[in-house]
């Protein structure tokens, strides 16, 4: 901890390392983003470490920061020092926290990306008013977190919960995790592309703008393409979005059945277009739970932090650790401060 920097002035860097992009932000103690850097996520360990070093150096050249938080889309060990496995990233059974702390010359906090995002929504969003609630992040893939009594639930080995890789179609679409038929292959940003290609290949609505533009080059379809065309009224793009919403609702039903939360918060980059699919998803969720119509269900809301939740949440975690006297990289946030962040129950 730098004794010359007050808690209210302390800045940390939060880095959200997703399957597509690596996004880094300087965040103040109140969760406000001050500055941002972004790069494509590299596919090798040396390139990924270089990219992290680059964005941190760029931000440090403009701001006085005291710690770095890494939000990673993968399995983190219970002590939050290592990455066991990440479907979209190159780390495999690697000690990451202390290694990057040495490379960067700053304290580093390592966290699962969905847990980090959930912590941001717990502090600054709707999670703070809920007893038990689930975070359901929809981006390139799907991430999940469970918060109960103000604490992140991690499970015995630190990997709970894993919503995105629930098998929903036996022998279905192949997944980068090595399985087939995972939920995120039907309900994610990348799933929008896959579904659109399948619909075009089967000849559905050949006169639609989506089919006409991409029949010969389906590899050019992106999730944003589908969303944009759906908003313009394209019938095929609209059906892709509806299919996405139905799968999302089935996934939310599983969350409801197993965890019985009072609130489900949708986050991730795809959630910014929730107005296109949220009603369908909630309807589908209600149809797919046991005792439908005879039990209370979670309210489903979009998070207030959107795609920035992971960066903000992990930056706040890094700031909470750095605020403790004589911290090492293995320190964890505690309660006791008067600040909005540190006065909440630790994660």
Catalogue the unreliable spans.
Answer: 325-345
What form results from the Cα inertia axes? globular
Q: How many domains make up the 3D coordinates?
A: 2
CATH superfamily of the largest domain: ATPase, nucleotide binding domain
- Radius of gyration from the alpha-carbon trace, in angstroms: 20 Å
Mean pLDDT: 90
* Percent helix range: 25-40%
InterPro entries: ATPase_NBD (IPR043129), ROK (IPR000600), ROK_cs (IPR049874)
Family: Belongs to the ROK (NagC/XylR) family.
EC number: 2.7.1.2
Region (Disordered): 324-347
Short description:
This protein has 347 residues and is an alpha/beta fold. Helices cover 33% and strands 20% of the residues.
How would you describe what is shown here?
It is a single chain. By secondary structure, this protein is an alpha/beta fold. The chain folds into two domains: 7-118 and 308-322, Nucleotidyltransferase, domain 5; 129-302, ATPase, nucleotide binding domain (Nucleotidyltransferase, domain 5), CATH 3.30.420.40. Helix content is 33%, strand content 20%. The protein has nine helices and 13 strands. It has helices at 45-60, 97-104, 113-124, 189-201, 209-214, 223-231, 235-259, 278-287, 309-322; strands at 11-17, 21-28, 33-40, 68-72, 75-76, 82-85, 92-95, 108-112, 132-138, 142-148, 151-153, 263-267, 299-302. Helix 3 crosses helix 9 and helix 6 packs across helix 7. The radius of gyration is 20 Å and the shape is globular. It starts with 10 loop residues before the first strand and ends in a 25-residue tail after the last helix. The model is unreliable at 325-345 (pLDDT under 50).
